Amino acid sequence: MSNFKIIETTADVGIEASGNDELELMINCLNAFYYICFDKFPEIMETVEKVKQSFESLEELVFNLLEESIFTLYTKKLLIQVRSISKMDNIYEVTYEKVKTNEQIQTEIKAVTKHNYKVEHIGSFYMARVIFDI
To answer: What DSSP character marks residue 112?
Structure first.
């Protein structure tokens, strides 16, 4: 079960997501994003592409993957599914797949914002707060 909640704001929409590790956090952030877009959890089809990327921080990883998710959804009708996240020498490497969906978009998200953006490691879990421009 996903561990996120949707935050309604005056003109935007946000999420608070958590996870026991970086991978679970990113999966929950993406699940929340897609839940906002489709008003449900989307059905996925086959994998189109596999990608590996590196980031200098977890904050950069979450922000950039959500931005990439917006771009990929609206330009190619593909979803991002994160498969692994590893950290070595303070560099995060993420492996993800771009997968097809036939779902109809219900809420258009324009961008991830830096407003009230944060990613934290608190005790034994990770937490992210993200506001999207709609």
So the answer is: E
